[in-house]
């Protein structure tokens, strides 16, 4: 292959070129007849030490060759000055080469066609995107069970709910930048592997801190999936297919939410699906759910091992032979599936540009940094990533980057804030309805009575209980105030949101109960004894206004509601353009926010949740597509990862702010969401339209 490769480069002027005047990447079959000739005259007589290397053939001397005065000497200052004068011209030439590569690559993709290969990659990358959708829902679904299993306080519950977003923020930033250095496929495999490993560990760890740590690292892993998946898939799609099929790919995020909701519905409420080893180790049904949620990620890893690296990444980094082989694989796979196995891939790659001459050393150093944990190599890799991020703010891309930052932030702030605020509002409405049915008892006197049934949603004030027995009893949302318990016996009592305030216990015995100290507020215990208190926190799925089934059902409906929006955006993305789709969907979402004022019932809030989700998904799809298309290949995943990290930061802020107004006012969240969406839709119109353009 090396001889043929040299023949093609030396004899460029002797063969006609299709689609290019100055010799490029797309060539006809007339070249094939000469591929079996002998070695090139330009390399005859050279020994191994004098062999022309790729960069030198392009007019780039070896760094150690000493040609001219580069090695030092009287003329070195003059040469250095000349080099500085040539920087501007070199940068202009590099941009011209990038544009030429983009045009030629588009021509190659047109010849490869769209078929079996792209659809296979679609489902493989869809699994990775599905794993990201699952990760968003996991903690929210297990929180009602985990908070009781781990005895979580309110601050700990809030941290557990937000930790996945912090992890995904770090992961998007890290893996997005790394994918532009070592490749899309390899970076995606690494981040998915980290997610699957720590998701597996999180289902078994017992302590709150270790569970929090595992979910954090799981989020760091999956955080890279969105920027890498969209960039990876876009580089296999021709211009006329890109917008539509990237939008179809977004459906897998919805499928991840549906999968998580269905699995939670089927697994978590079954408390019997558990085992324990003494009181130290307990494995409840919600841990089974966490384990099952890792399956899409594991499946994505297995399937991704059979897929190749992005050929565009190889071509951008001087790996022309590898890129040609992958493009030939795409072509042959599609042609065989369409019934044309005889069609020959009439494209060959000649060495013309190499945007990163030190690519092989970068890959080698990256592997060493990851596998050997060399601090110096890690520092070098960090420096390379930092330079790539800074390049996104270069004069050429600064305006685009700042505009996209504003659009990503406003959309994420409103979307994630409202999607979390909706379920919280539904629970608040349920709680109000439940509390309206509370029964109140005052000045009652009860003597010699055995309570062996459930006491629920009652308030007892100024009561007197003498020689009463509370056996095998469940107390749910019970409050005893200013009451006296004299010579009472409590055995095997389980409580949920039950408190004794300003009560007095005289000569009473508590045996095998979960009546811990915090349930007695300003109480006096006289000659009373506690024996064999229950350990840990008790799971109770019969909680009316925090019913597990309702939580999963609401999220299932909200996720399913985005299906029509996904279909519409996919069908219209390449017809009306990205900007119209983005701005139009944002405006309609903004208007729909004002309907939230009329959501005064549980069913009304669920309907509004579905409406908002179905409308806003089109703007997300358009934003994903336009972000991919506005940056060149060497900055694509870096920019996408940075913007996606900003998205997660905005999500944390939106969730925290919107939740603080639950039960206080609707006006503030509605104004915040509508204002953010209005600002985002206005700024979106200032972005350049990318429909009909080749991928940079």
From TrEMBL:
Q: Where would you find this protein in the cell?
A: Cytoplasmic vesicle, Secretory vesicle, Synaptic vesicle membrane; Presynapse
Cellular component per GO, a single term: neuron projection
- What biological-process terms (Gene Ontology) are attached? chemical synaptic transmission; neurotransmitter transport
Tell me any Pfam family this protein matches: MFS_1
- What Gene3D superfamilies does the record tag this protein with? E3 ubiquitin-protein ligase SopA, MFS general substrate transporter like domains
Domain named Major facilitator superfamily (MFS) profile is located at: 121-691
Tree of life domain: Eukaryota
What ranges does the record give for the region Disordered, renumbered to this chain? Answer: 1-77
One example of the protein's molecular function in GO is: transmembrane transporter activity
Q: Which UniProt keywords apply?
A: Cell projection, Cytoplasmic vesicle, Glycoprotein, Membrane, Neurotransmitter transport, Phosphoprotein, Synapse, Transmembrane, Transmembrane helix, Transport
Answer whether the UniProt record assigns the keyword Nucleotide-binding to this protein.
Answer: no
Q: Please tell me whether the keyword Acyltransferase is annotated for this protein.
A: no
Q: What is the membrane topology noted in the UniProt record heading this document? A: Multi-pass membrane protein
The UniProt transmembrane annotation reads 119-142, 162-179, 186-204, 210-234, 246-268, 288-307, 402-422, 549-572, 579-599, 605-627, 639-661, 667-685
Under the heading PANTHER family, the entry gives: SYNAPTIC VESICLE GLYCOPROTEIN 2 (PTHR23511), SYNAPTIC VESICLE GLYCOPROTEIN 2A (PTHR23511:SF11)
Q: Which family does it belong to?
A: Belongs to the major facilitator superfamily.
Indicate the quaternary assembly.
Interacts with SYT1/synaptotagmin-1 in a calcium-dependent manner. Binds the adapter protein complex AP-2.
Q: What does this protein do?
A: Plays a role in the control of regulated secretion in neural and endocrine cells, enhancing selectively low-frequency neurotransmission. Positively regulates vesicle fusion by maintaining the readily releasable pool of secretory vesicles.
Protein name, per record: Synaptic vesicle glycoprotein 2A
């Amino acid at each position: 292959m090396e001889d043929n490769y040299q023949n093609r480069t030396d004899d460029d002027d002797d063969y006609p070129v299709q689609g290019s005047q100055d010799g490029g990447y797309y060539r006809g079959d007339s070249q094939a007849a000469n591929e079996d000739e002998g070695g090139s005259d330009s390399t005859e007589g050279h020994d191994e030490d004098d062999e022309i290397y790729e960069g030198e053939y392009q007019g780039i001397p070896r760094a150690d060759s000493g040609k001219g005065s580069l090695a030092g000497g009287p003329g070195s200052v003059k040469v250095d000055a000349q080099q500085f004068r040539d920087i501007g011209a070199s940068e202009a030439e590099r941009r011209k080469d990038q544009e030429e590569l983009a045009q030629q690559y588009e021509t190659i993709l047109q010849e490869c066609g769209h078929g079996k290969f792209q659809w296979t990659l679609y489902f493989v990358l869809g699994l990775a995107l599905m794993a990201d959708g699952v990760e968003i829902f996991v903690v929210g679904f297990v929180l009602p069970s985990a908070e009781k299993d781990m005895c979580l306080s309110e601050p700990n519950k809030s941290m557990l709910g937000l930790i996945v977003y912090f992890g995904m923020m770090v992961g998007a930033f890290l893996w997005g930048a790394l994918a532009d250095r070592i490749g899309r496929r390899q970076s995606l495999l690494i981040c998915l592997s980290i997610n699957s490993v720590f998701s597996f560990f999180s289902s078994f760890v017992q302590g709150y801190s270790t569970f929090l740590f595992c979910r954090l690292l799981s989020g760091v892993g999956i955080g890279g999936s969105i920027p890498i998946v969209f960039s990876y898939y876009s580089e296999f799609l021709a211009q006329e297919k890109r917008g539509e099929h990237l939008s179809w790919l977004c459906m897998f995020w919805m499928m991840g939410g549906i999968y998580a909701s269905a699995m939670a519905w089927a697994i978590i409420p079954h408390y019997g699906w558990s085992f324990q080893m003494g009181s130290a180790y307990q494995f409840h049904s919600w841990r089974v759910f966490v384990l099952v949620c890792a399956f899409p990620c594991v499946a994505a890893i297995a399937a991704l091992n059979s897929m190749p690296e992005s050929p565009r990444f190889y071509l951008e980094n001087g790996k022309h032979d590898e890129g040609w082989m992958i493009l030939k694989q795409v072509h042959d796979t599609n042609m065989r599936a369409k019934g044309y196995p005889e069609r020959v891939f009439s494209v060959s790659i000649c060495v013309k540009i190499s945007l990163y001459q030190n690519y092989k050393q970068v890959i080698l150093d990256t592997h060493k940094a990851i596998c050997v944990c060399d601090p110096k190599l890690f520092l070098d890799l960090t420096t390379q990533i930092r330079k790539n991020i800074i390049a996104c703010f270069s004069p050429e891309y600064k305006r685009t980057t700042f505009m996209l930052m504003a659009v990503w932030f406003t959309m994420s702030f409103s979307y994630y804030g409202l999607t979390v605020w909706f379920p919280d509002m539904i629970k608040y409405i349920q709680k109000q309805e439940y509390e309206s049915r509370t029964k109140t008892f005052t000045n009652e006197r009860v003597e010699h009575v055995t309570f062996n049934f459930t006491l629920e949603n009652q308030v007892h004030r100024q009561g007197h209980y003498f020689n009463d027995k509370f056996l095998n009893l469940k107390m749910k949302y019970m409050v005893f105030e200013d009451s006296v318990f004299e010579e009472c016996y409590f055995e095997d009592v389980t409580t949920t949101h039950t408190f004794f305030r300003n009560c007095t216990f005289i000569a009473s015995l508590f045996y095998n109960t979960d009546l811990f100290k915090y349930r007695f507020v300003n109480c006096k215990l006289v000659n009373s004894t506690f024996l064999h208190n229950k350990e840990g926190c008790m799971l109770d799925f019969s909680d009316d206004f925090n019913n597990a089934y309702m939580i999963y059902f609401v999220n299932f409906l909200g996720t399913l509601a985005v299906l029509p929006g996904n279909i519409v955006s996919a069908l219209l993305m390449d017809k009306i353009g990205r900007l119209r789709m983005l701005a139009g969907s944002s405006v309609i979402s903004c208007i729909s926010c004002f309907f939230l004022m009329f959501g005064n019932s549980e069913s009304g809030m669920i309907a509004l949740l579905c409406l908002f989700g179905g409308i806003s998904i089109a703007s997300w799809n358009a934003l994903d597509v336009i972000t991919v298309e506005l940056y060149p290949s060497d900055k694509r995943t870096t920019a996408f990862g940075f913007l996606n990290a900003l998205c997660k930061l905005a999500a944390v802020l939106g969730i925290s702010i919107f939740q603080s107004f639950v039960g206080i006012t609707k006006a503030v969240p509605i104004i915040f969401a509508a204002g953010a969406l209005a600002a985002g839709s206005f700024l979106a119109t200032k972005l350049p339209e990318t429909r009909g353009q080749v991928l940079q």
